[in-house]
Amino acid sequence: MPDWLAVCLIVVVGYLFGAVVWRWLDDADAAATTWSSAGAGGAASSQDALDHIFAALSLGLGLAGWLALQLAEAGQYNLPLLTLLLLLLTLLTAYQSRHLPSSFSLLPSPFSLLPSSFFLLPWLFLAAWLFFRPHEYILGGADAGVYVSLAANIDRSGGILIDDPLLAQLDPALYPHLLRPLPPPEAAPYYWFPGFYVPGEPAGRVIPQFYPLHPVWLAVAHGLGGASASLLLPGLWGTLGVIALFLLARRWGGGRAALLVLGGMTLNGLQIWFSRYPTTETLTQFLLWTGVWALAVWWQDRSRRTWGLLAGLMWGLLLLTRIDMFFVAALPAFLLFWLWWGGQVRRQDAWFFAPVFLLALHAFAHAWWQSRPYFLNTFGLGLRLLERFPVLPATAALGLLLLLILSRRYRPAGLAVRWRRQQKPVLIGAIVLLLLLAVYAWFVRPYDPTSLRIWDNWFAGAQVTMTDRENLLRLGWYLSPVGVWLGVGGACWLLWQWPSRRLEIGAVLFVGLFFSLLYIWRLQNNPVLVYGLRRYVPAVIPFATLAAAMLLSALSRRRSWLQAAAWGLALLWWAGLALAGRGLALQVDAVGLVDQVAEAAAQMPAASILLYNDPTPVGLGDFIGMPLQYLHGRYAFTLRDLEQLSQPEQIERLRQTIAGWQSAGYAVYWVGDPAWLQQQQFAFQPDQTLALAAQTLEGRYDRQPQAVLAREWVLTLYLLQPQ
Question: Which of 482-491, 553-562, 658-667 has the lowest mean pLDDT?
Fold first, then answer.
């Protein structure tokens, strides 16, 4: 199946499934008023029509993704089974909703859309060109290739955990030589490739890194159209993430604010780049902001259970997508406490809170049973960070103590009266603090030599200078300086407007300010550019764009000179974004690499094992070996320290292992310099040389990447002879 058709099929199935589920859950009265078409008698609200199309699509994709994930966790995933289950669930829910009025329409009339929504139609063609030209990052050694390989393995094996028969038969004494030993405090003793942990017990077990929802979705696309189709999914999530922000802005500020958000997100170079890059950033963005938007709609009328389900599902799935998203569970927890404190908890509220907290439990269960090394490593890093900065847990504890004291002394109504008396000084203080932090991060911190840090990166075998002190400036390379300060000004404007729409603006401020302050303070990522800035894509860039758009939209409704100034600033902002992002928009990395790796695999027997002679910390065995193994079934092991393998008993173990592989029908190749083979008197013969080439944007630590580099990987293969 063509890769673009696979993506279209995912959208269509997701929408139909979600629309039928929505129809089943929604009340007949709500269905008749919000989904009826003009031809059926009584046109629906034009804004509701677009809202419900997107809501149904999001609900269907969320439920389908969770179903696929559960199958993969159970080791039972396969595309035909998933398709059958979705078909059965769709038919069952359609049958259950047969009593709904005939005016209910799964396809609202396009003529019922607001004029502001018509921006989306031409924009979709632009988004197709910007977001759906994927970087073909399938090589190992970095997160992107790990996700693609893991997806291929899920599609082929049906499970997330890997039980490899060849590894199970390997002599554990050879683990330190054929696998990579991990230093403490790593939670697993070895990895096979970066991102694939080997715990040692049970024999043959491999535990992939990362949380599972994103690779499971990539597996769905891989089953439909191969690796090329899976590489298109980040573009789909990036498109849906922008639409979610468009709808949220339209809800607050109308078509003007929505247009500003649409332009700001579309022109942003980081949004374009990571919509082409197969990591979790755009999926996280879509789930996060769709959840914020649905929460705002649900909170306005908490009896609308479908909106509560959508909001809870989106935020719950966040916790199964990225490990750093567990912070967002604080907002649902606070909302539940607030409702309980005021005696306002209702049975219908479970439609929002139950999915969030059940999926949170699901996330922790998955972390412990199917991703334990990654979970322990990441949370161990967080605990060590809290030990270095005890002010963080102390502040959190103080906040909880204050909340407990207030809940015992006041009821929400009484506290609201006191708050109204004090809100202006408190908000002014918060705005001043935010401005001071922005001024410090932009004008003072980048030039403070005491904030310079050196990072001992054992993974790459080198020390790297961390650049956290320059985080806001580096973000400004892609938001533009105008965009940064419009974002700061917009955040201040939202703070000032917060009392008028507490929940909606509060949710946006919580998400946006929390992740902005966290990552501008400490990015906690490999500082190579542009890769290191991906942390900003899910929350920080959308928040800055939304805040800027809301500020400009508000100014444009003032007196004539303010209106002109607002549109002048908007044009300047868009021009800065386009100028800053032009290199990222025009460059597509590693074009053709999927086909080149497939051609290289085709030149070897299907049963092949490659032994890479490569002493580098991350080298050819990781770059090329991982996609050859997980995309095409050609095994790979890397021998990083041949001196350590030179003991006679170790050499004899290796000989016996190779002989066992050969007797089982495997062709065993040595990749690289054969001098050690000659020294140890292995029989071999030259076989072939494979070359892969691609163009990629340079990776820099010190400045914005600009140059496009021609990269080449050469594999010289020697076929080992039976002895």
Answer: 553-562
d(CA 574, CA 486): 12
Residues paired with 456 in a beta bridge? 463
CA distance readout (Å), 666 to 177, 395, 533, 722: 20, 59, 43, 11
- Three-state secondary structure call for residue 363: helix
| Lowest mean per-residue pLDDT among 98-102, 350-354, 541-545 | 98-102
Burial (0-12, 13-18, 19+ Cβ within 10 Å), 216: buried
Which CB contacts under 8 angstroms, 24+ apart, belong to 697-702? 697/530, 697/583, 697/584, 697/587, 697/589, 699/528, 699/529, 699/530, 699/531, 700/528, 700/529, 701/464, 701/465, 701/467, 701/527, 701/528, 701/529
CA angle 364, 145, 611 (to 5 degrees): 110
What does the alpha-carbon distance between residue 314 and residue 65 come to, in Å, rounded to a whole number? 11
Q: How confident is the model at residue 462 (pLDDT cuts 50, 70, 90)?
A: low
Average predicted confidence (pLDDT) for the chain: 89
Q: Is 676 exposed, middle or buried (0-12, 13-18, 19+ CB in 10 A)?
A: middle
* CA pseudo-torsion sign 659, 661, 664, 667: negative
Sheet holding 205-208, edge to edge: 162-163, 205-208, 196-198, 190-193, 180-181
Beta bridge partners of 712: 693
| Chain position carrying tokens 């095409």 | 632
- Express each pLDDT in 569-592 by its tens digit: 999 999 999 999 999 999 999 999
Q: Would strands 190-193 and 608-613 be described as parallel, antiparallel, or unpaired?
A: unpaired
Q: Compute CA distances 73 → 77, 144, 362, whole Å.
A: 8, 21, 11
Residue 510 reports pLDDT greater than 50: yes
Q: What is the largest CA-CA distance in the chain?
A: 89
**Domains of the chain, residue spans:** 143-229+591-720
